[in-house]
Design goal:
- Helix 5 (156-163) crosses helix 6 (165-175) and helix 7 (179-188) runs antiparallel to helix 8 (196-211).
- The chain is built from 20 helices and 12 strands.
- Strand 8, helix 4 (125-140) and strand 9 form a beta-alpha-beta unit.
- It is globular, with a radius of gyration of 26 Å.
- The protein has 3 domains: 56-175, Dna Topoisomerase Vi A Subunit, Chain: A, domain 2, CATH 3.40.1360.10; 193-269, no CATH class; 272-450.
- The protein is 55% helix and 11% strand.
- It is of the alpha/beta class.
Length: 457
Amino acid sequence: MTIKNYEFDRFYGRLIFPIHNVSGKIIAFGARNLNKNNKIAKYINSPETEIYQKSRELYGMYFAKNTVVKKNKCYLVEGYTDVLSLFQNGIKNVVSSSGTSLTTEQIRIIKRFTKNVCILYDGDEAGIGASLRGIDLILKEGLNVKIVLFPDGEDPDSYSKKIGKNKFIEFLKEKEEDFIHFKTKMFLNKIEKNDPIEKANLITNIVNSIAIIPDSILRSVYVLECSKILEIREEILFQKVVEIQEEDNFFKKKPEKEKKKFFKKKPEILKENFFFENQEKEIIRLILNYGNSKIAILEAEENVDLSVTEYILSEILEDNLEIETPVYKIIFEEIISLINKDEIIKEEYFMEHKNPEVCKISAKLLEKKYFLSDFWKKRNTMVQTEEMILKKKINDVLINYKLKKIEKNLIKLDKKILDTEKNNDTEFDILELIQKKIDLSKLKFFFTKEMERVILP
């Protein structure tokens, strides 16, 4: 660094932290002041260049990425020393936002390796504020977010040194909570007892966060959770979510067709086949591509090997579910017929089918769109393929499908309840319908919890 023809060491008297990009190349340096002089900045970084922009990099990601993929989780901290302390304590799936406010670009780097983020920011007011700001950004990118709140005045670095490695790891497991519980705890501490206006503001704040979640199933899960914690009817929360989305300029600019896809809570815009089309397409794709592969499941406390086709058919038929999209229904019924004849699923059978529409769809579903490049193999970089996570993939698709079926039945029940009220039918009829709705809602809640279930490896 040169000032008035005098050269200075920019990082003199500071501890240097090399900053690597995701590929492992050193692109910049961070430096911490070692003196007790409070008049100078505690941390400084290399100037931004074409290859280094602080808001687009995560400190430690190069060293953490393989563990992030393996653990399917990324811990997010504020500072360089937090990363080092956690790494020394055996927690290697940790990265830092380098003391800056979390950015969309940084979140998208994490998204390349996992969809699960746990925020470990400082326990002071600034750290809590940063956590609250980061939650919505993470949710908007479609990631799952948990938060761990440290005692006031503590950060991951200081607290891990204070309580030791084993207790620190246990602390993270015990204190991890989802954003609804975190926000509720933070705001309830500031709300005066029995203040309805403040409680309404809290609910609105949480619903604003739920509304930006892209995945409709996950939105439903959080609405149910919010309803339970804050003791407010889920129908009101669902309606509020839709109102927030409709007010958002992003959705106003969407064509009407896209709005209809997103605001699926409104019964009048739903089409019978469209409701399940994506899930049914995925079910058929998995059978056509992996139908003869074996997976292990737990049945009557014993490991049982089933083919992918057998497992999917058993899950659908035992629950009396019916494929509704016409072309997928044809394929599904043919698959059942083949299995009943003890025949294996062959690609050629559907690719050369007498029905042109079946041929066309089968060819599309059997197309391999992505291949693992030799570049990644040579670099020994761990990249998950669909085959590696096949069992989890199948389970997720089936749970989503069952949830969709329940959602459709709930919408039909809502309409039936309204019609019953308009027709002045007996109170018994209405109560019976409401009880059915309650039972279905419980079943829906059960299946959302089932999304965490894992088939045996």
